[in-house]
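Kindly go through the entry underneath: sequence plus fold tokens. Please state briefly how this chain folds according to its tokens.
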Amino acid sequence: MPENETRARLSAKRIVKKDVTTYPRIIERIEDWPIYRLSKDRNEFIREIDEFTYKRLIRRHKKDLADVLVKTIYQERIRIKEDPWKVDPPNERSFWNRISKRLIKKSLDRQDTEAIQVAEDILQKIIHRYSEEIVGTFQIPTFRFAQRFLTAFFNRLFNAAVGKNLRAIFRGRRHLYERLNVVGDVETVRELFKHGTVVILPTHSSNLDSILVGYAMDQIMGLPSFSYGAGLNLYNFGPAAYFMNRLGAYRVDRRKKNPIYLETLKTMSNLSIQRGVNSLFFPGGTRSRSGELETELKMGLIGTAVEAQRAMCQTAVDAGHPDTPKKVFIVPMVLCYNFVLEAPFLIEQHLRRTGKENYIRLKDEGTSVRAWLRFVWRFFSTTSDITLSVGQPMDIMGNFVDANGRSFDRFGNELNISDYFTLNNEITADRQREEEYTKLLAERIVERYHIENVILSSHLVAYAVFELLLHENPKLDLFGILRLPPDEYLFPFRAVEDVVEQIQAKLFEWEQQGNIRLAPETHRSAADVVRDGVKNLGIFHAEKPLGFNKAGDIQSSNFRVLYFYHNRLVNYQFDKIIQWKAEEIEVLKMD
């Protein structure tokens, strides 16, 4: 073979290094990061949480405080008995037994002064126990070690995977961020740190989300560390507990549903935002089991941003500059994957919950370290990127803001955020009003998720194929569809191409209007989109959702996993615009 041809073939096999824009740090000294300053003042911060939570609960439950305490103690003792975790404090049982005995002995069913005092004292002890559990720390040496170690580890693993062998682990010069596409107005988000507190609200699909968002914000966007919630169950793993305890995480125990714990958690978020600590949490509360973009959000932590903004407006009035309060900025973020490691497990959970069917319980591979590392290796060794779409920043009322933090209505008129909390020329606290603001903000975030979402070719093809399957079986409900044997169905390439082409026309229209974001590959011909989508969809699943047969038509190995990826676009209602062509869409049943 001629030398030039050999070189050409070798060159064609090389993976081209992607040019990625990385930003300098907006706050160079870690000692100046808000989260570090909060950690240094941890004891005083906990005292503020205790006092604020206590006053609020006393105000709300003055007449039924004993009932609230009884309910809390009962729920905690049941939790300790039926759902203990290794991370629980060793004195957990003795604490709640002691509290219970004291309540029964001194205050239950009594209304005298001594009984009230004992109940209030017990409330203070419970609140302090919760606040000590929730509030973490931020240690600079630990952060620097984790930053260096994890960055080096992922970059080395990336080089080894790209080079297809471990010897490449020290030879390459590639970086993890070459696999991450960060799109959106990053510059505006960076500028907003000068004008208030930034709260980033990502969608949640995978256990990989937290790591990728944190890495992207640190290594690509140049942002300081955020305060973020970490499930207390993660602390059962010793090394994870060590780092999260020292990297700004606050602990969230989803087993605890009592009003005292929930109020303490919300107070922590509210007061930290007021202190200027930038926050990140998943408003959906957990990973999307169905594969859909979130449509229902948890109001608790979102509401703390609204309440913090009202308090910041009051602080500005007290300081004599009511027209320039510090502001809370809401930044939706959408994570877009061709492949979700836990998809088979998640869709099984969703179907059991919605269909009440007796599905075989699958192990959640997202919690297996070996499975997770195997996924990372395969992810690095392919060209399947992950996209982080940074949404247009808003204030707590859902109005867009500019780089100077100024709010504007939909007609371009500048707004003063304080006006939303003003009654008779005075900033007032109104719980009902702020709950309504929280609902409106949640609806706005959901709306922006669907606009900021980046449509990938894999999403488009999964949707098209599953809609073909639905169209071919109009008399079956969803669970009947999912019980069909995949090996008996073949989807003609031309039929899938035609559906994709119709959806593309609508997507291009929306993109022109600024109502959707499209990945570059979705601008290709429909045939190319189908090929690209099938190649990338669920690329590492043991049963690949879609693949080609020798004739070039499309087949599926798992309809349930295909349904998971189809659901990414289900809320856009493309099924209403598809014009079915009988001669092209007939799904072939295999004999």
Remarks:
- The CA atoms of residues 3 and 9 lie 10 Å apart.
- The chain has 21 helices and 18 strands.
- Confidence is low (pLDDT under 50) at residues 1-16, 357-365.
- The first helix runs from residue 3 to 13.
